[in-house]
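Researcher: I'm comparing several assemblies side by side, and this is the next one on my list. It has 931 residues spread over two chains. Same procedure as the others: predict the full complex and return the structure.
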Amino acid sequence: MMETIHISIRLNGRLQTADIAPNLMLVDFLREHLGLQGTKLACDQGACGACTVLIDGRPMTSCLTFAFAADGADILTIEGVSRDNGTLNQVQKALHACGVPQCGFCTPGMVMMMEGFAGQNPHLPGQSLETWMNANLCRCSGYQGFRRALSHLADEANGS
Amino acid sequence: MTALPNTLAHVGRSMADVNGHDKLTGAARYASDFNLAGMLHAKILRSPHPHARILSIDASAALAMPGVAGVVTGEDLAGLDHTYGMFIRDQPVIAYAKVRFAGEPVAAIAAETEELAYRALSAIRVEYDVLPPVSCIAEALAENAPPLFDGGLHPSALQPPPLCSTWVQEPAPNVLFDFSYSFGDIEDLFASCAHVSEDRFTLGRQSHAALEPHVAIALAPDRDHVEVWSNNQDPFLLREDIARIFGLEAGNVRFHAGLVGGGFGSKSYCKIEPIAVLLARKTGRPVRLALTMAESMMTVCDHAAEILLRTGVSATGETVVRDAVVELDGGAYADASPSVAMRMGTRFNGPYKWKGVRTRVRVIRTTTIPAGSFRGFGMGHVTWACESQMDMIAGRIRLRPDEFRARNFLEPGTSGAPAERVLDCDLTEGFNAVRSRMAKRTTSSDAGRGIGFAVACKGGGSSHRADARVEIHPTGDVTLAAGVTEIGQNTRTILTQIAAEVLGVDPVRIKVVNIDTHATPFDSGTHASNGATVAGLAVRDAATKAAAEVLLFAARQLKCGVEELSFRQMRILHGASSYLLGDLVDPQAQDDHPSFSGAASIQTPGGSLFWMPIWTAAEVEVDEETGIVRLTRLINAADVGRAINPQRCVSQIEGAAAQGLGQALFEDITYRDGQPLTATPLTYRMPRLADIPADFETIILEQGRGPGPFGAKGVGESGNLTIPAAIANAIADAVGARMTTLPMTPDKILRAIREAKPAIMATAGVSPSDR
């Protein structure tokens, strides 16, 4: 039996402790151990971004992150984005209105990337969200729905 | 959008996806999120060799490992009808005696965890007698080429060939299928032509690479019953396949399907499901077989191909006669290749008028990933060759490419070939829409910048059966059940809008249920862009019948004639009075919760039910020093008959166009020494946001001639077809280099530029042969 590692994380605002195998990936910890299946496992190679979660505010591919590496971190998953009352936040509303979800399998990762950008952007002036979103693959949409949502959000921010 | 006047409440509106909220919050559940208590996890041992005889498999060490519950190999196929394939059944459920491509499943293990199953794979010992690979069409057809199969015909379920065509199954070693189609006196027609062009085109091997990999969870509670949860888009076809393979009653096989994370053809027809069933029957436990995306890419891909196209035109530039000779690389097994060959073989006339067309499409077996259906079913291949050649011919006869096209378009209401459905769209209107917009802003005078056009017209909806059931509950809720799979085309939203329109109810009261083959009305598969049109008609009719049931009931309760009543917003209107349906139900009655149900079934004939035209204008910038092409502007127009949901139509065209862009510029599973080099998500380049031009416009035309509900027709398979040829034509316009091989990678473009401009290169001190 493999030795286990004790980890303690803040997951979607709540303290979560666990004893985990050292080779457990964060995506499997979330999906299989904790039942948080909103985070999607698609390419399993860090190429598509479907498994993106925020670790201390930074978007990371949870398929390439060991669960133990998240010890002590603050983790936000798609379940934590709108969990207060199940209503969509501003980013999700813009995506919904712009017709984004097609098959929907890339959607949680895309939402997390956009959330991460919103959180990090004050510290990273001059970065563009479009550039960040190159990290994530969508095979259904041709990305135009995302572009429309970004433009919609920009209009909202400018008060128009 | 050129829209029809819309007086409808729900149809014609860009309603957001009915599952959109759940998809955005992570609450949406896919087959890959499904768990059963006591479930085992399966992993597959795959052949490292492209071509080999299996001498022995020793799995005893793997079986002895802790947590391993069962192993299956080719030996477990004894007594089963062990092969599958859409028309020709040549693919064993798991490799049997021989492997025919690198990555073919050789053994599968079910263990308590996925990790234990992975570990146990390495304990299986397989002895191979390695044979030479057959990596491409030329190698497969070479004299003394090693045959993939030992001869003899495989069982088949081929339908009689369509009019003007013949086919031969497995006519020669390494030839799976030979399809011929012809009308007109071909050689006489060529002799009459003022200009004859003969050009060769090739295509790489595109991967579907849907984000959700294939998954199947199988349960076999006894020897006679099987239950499967999978993300296959053909649950009803799968039910038949599993029943046949395992010798079960189809009624004892139950398939479930919910939301599917993309497919594009990769999840149609039988795939991994029998392996999961085999393991479930062997272990007596539920088994989950979840592929990685890399494994999914090794399960099926599109056909690499070579196309020789000979086209004759008159002195005045009229299209007269065309002869196409196609070799499709079908990979190791048939999958849907015969169907692809038939579809493309009858469609080389494209959107133009011809006096004669002849095609021969041969599917060649190679030791590569089995090729199957891909968005457009071969029409992407046809369009790449034909629309590239249209520009080449125009150049040779000194006509503008757009003028050459415009003067040869088929006219609405006419038929392009014997027995073919008449054209239900206006090709000139659509072409003018993209041509005028591209002309408005772009002049191709800038160095390295050019524009190109392409047009295609794919048929849809043929030989399809779709059933639907609509139930109205006194609570005001509506249940909608149909067998069409939700795979990202937002079919549930479209069907909801149709039912809402017919019933006059708020769409939020309509719930579309997951597919369960024991309960859901039949559907012959989510294919050929038929969801909105064919399933849509079934839903329309089922909703109409359910509403009639409500009125019959209300007439009894109100003791009046049914013709005095109408039903809107869950209210029964009777003269000046109005009653909620629920209020008419007597709570004292024995049946205090009646439901009012309507069912309908639509069967379409063979041949195209409707045409999906697509018109494309592309603008590119070519860097003549690097060969890098940047798509700077893309305009697509599509006729959808009537848009049930304009936004969803736009999404289908945009998403397909991105796949066409990938196919045009970089997507290709390449092989070296029989091994795939790019069949993983990291090595297979797919379009990302930065690849998509910011100037990207999609025009939805409503030409009003669709056979579907409210005049709708399908739209899902058109948007990718034209992109490669439009880009190639734009490159030729920009730098004079003609690309004839997909993908058009920078190295190929540089070579073509050097060949096209030897004089320029010579002055720069570079010889054309210098690479």
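Model: For your comparison table: Chain B is about 25% helix and 25% strand.
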